[in-house]
Design a protein that fits this description.
With 291 residues, the protein is an alpha/beta fold. It is built from ten helices and eleven strands. It starts with 7 loop residues before the first helix and ends with a helix.
């Protein structure tokens, strides 16, 4: 039973649940659903912290709780002092995410989602959740033009991913130049998601000045081949040089009722979900044809 606010374990949980990541890479997850996901993920779990009222959740996580994981107990008051949520459920865990590599993101017919300067943790978590749901093999996050992508293992992003960040291979903070070069080397097609194109099919001027190229609609892309989808910043989209570096750009047509006023483009997470779903639809259809 931990009774001191200065206890070293409480300090570790406090730092991890606030989003701080030390040299060991340990992250904190809070709430019964995320703790259950962490325990069932096969990732190393360093410790479980349970408050007096949170002990009611232990029977739920018992089936995935191995004996080697220490269970630390504390008061509701002390648990609240380390929690990141307004109404804590009284259960948290320290977990070590897998160290993903480019190779681990691209098994078989790869489908990779690349977040370039996506700043909102909720968007990052939702994209990771959609990536797992629609069969992506991995995700990567990049900085572009000084704008970084929110940590997919941060508290808000982790909650938005509903634990998907613990299961999907993710590389965080890789250089877009390095990533694109490696994808080209292994012949993964790179598609830059851009804002809805004008009626003549040209790339939106807000995304790229290269109007000699046309954008593809989601169903015009052959998603059955190894592919990577680039998703840009919520406000400015993908940098022009990254759009030009892609093999093609892809946009999601919108109802004519939204033009010329109204919705300019879809939310980053929504756009990623639509593209990932179309990729899954094509791949599922191909598997059914071949079975």
């Amino acid at each position: 039973m931990i009774t001191s606010r200065e206890n070293r374990w409480l300090k570790r949980f406090r730092a991890a649940l606030s989003g701080e990541r030390g040299d060991d890479g340990i992250v904190g997850v809070e709430g019964v659903r995320l703790v259950e996901a962490a325990l069932g993920s096969t990732l190393p779990v360093e410790a479980l912290l349970v408050s007096e009222s949170g002990a009611r959740h232990l029977p739920r996580v018992a089936p995935v709780l191995v004996s080697a994981v220490p269970i630390l107990r504390t008061s509701d008051r002390l648990f609240a002092s380390v929690a990141d949520t307004q109404a804590p459920q009284g259960i948290a865990a320290l977990v070590r995410p897998r160290q993903a590599t480019i190779e681990s993101l691209l098994p078989g017919t790869a489908l990779l989602v690349v977040l370039v300067g996506v700043q909102d943790p909720g968007n990052v978590g939702t994209i990771v959740r959609a990536a797992e749901a629609f069969g992506a093999t991995g995700a990567a996050t990049c900085m572009a033009e000084g704008i970084g992508t929110a940590d997919p293992f941060g508290p808000k992003a982790m909650r938005a991913s509903a634990g998907s960040a613990l299961r999907l291979p993710i590389i965080h903070g890789i250089s877009p130049t390095v990533l694109l070069a490696q994808l080209r080397m292994i012949r993964v097609k790179i598609y830059a998601a851009v804002a809805a194109a004008a009626a003549d099919g040209e790339i939106s001027k807000n995304t790229s000045s290269d109007t000699s190229r046309t954008s593809l609609r989601p169903w015009d892309v052959d998603w059955k081949r190894p592919a990577a989808i680039l998703i840009g910043n919520e406000g400015s989209g993908l940098p022009a040089e990254i759009v030009r570096a892609a093999d093609a750009s892809v946009y999601i047509p919108q109802s004519a009722g939204t033009v010329p006023v109204g919705i300019e483009s879809l939310n980053a997470a929504m756009a990623a979900s639509v593209l990932l779903y179309e990729a899954m639809r094509q791949r599922d259809a191909a598997r059914q044809e071949n079975s």
